[in-house]
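Chain A, query sequence.
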Amino acid sequence: MYAALLAPVMLAAFALGPLLGVAYAQGLFTLVVATAFAQIEPVTWRLSEARMIDVVTGSLIGLLCGLLAWPAGARREVHRAMAGLLRTCAELVPVTAEALLAPTGGSRASPHTLPGVHRLRLAEAAYAQYRTEAPGEDTRADWHAMLIAANHILLGAHWLPRFGLRPESGATAPSAARARTTARELVAETDRIASLLTGDRPGPARRRTAPDSDPPTPLSVDLEVWMTSLAHQLTRIEASLTPPPGPPVMSSQRRTAPPG
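Chain A, predicted structure.
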């Protein structure tokens, strides 16, 4: 009887468990284990007792590990992980800009993106844990935009030095200076966002370099598009971290306002 029941119970457990939820999946899996072990030893009431002890012991171990690993949840960890991700990836922007400012014939190695990829995996894991918990006060933070911006930097740093279009004779001095200034401003903006995430005092907001009124000088089009897109993404991220300004409240209104 148990041999005949094993296949249908396994099918129901592995098909319906993920659809119904964790509790149903655990309960159906318990039936699978009980049906399998019933074929190894004679069925007695001790089987249920041993299974109950295993479940309770495993639950206590899991709760203890969760208490030690995540005492306050993943909210602080996702802030630290995202801040570290943005700071690590921001270091690739000036290096990539220098690689794209070189003449076409120059050979330059691509920036080392492995630390950024490692930080990206940690940030994704922290965000996945954060999404399993109840929402907190920081629901306005655009975590997806931070992950997208990091991917944008990593992809550009990896591929642009290899396949990006560069001027034949190199960029002119004004164009190169503007590109380097823009790269530094992007790094400063990223550091400001990271400071907002970790609760540190952010630096003053900087005005990004405006395009020159003169005709465009020779510059990598890919570099220009890459940095412009990144600037828009950082602006959106900072807006999600900064609370919207409320209407000013006059002192007379505060004195005459009714309770509540």
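Residues 2-69 form one domain. Residues 248-260 have pLDDT under 50 and may be disordered.
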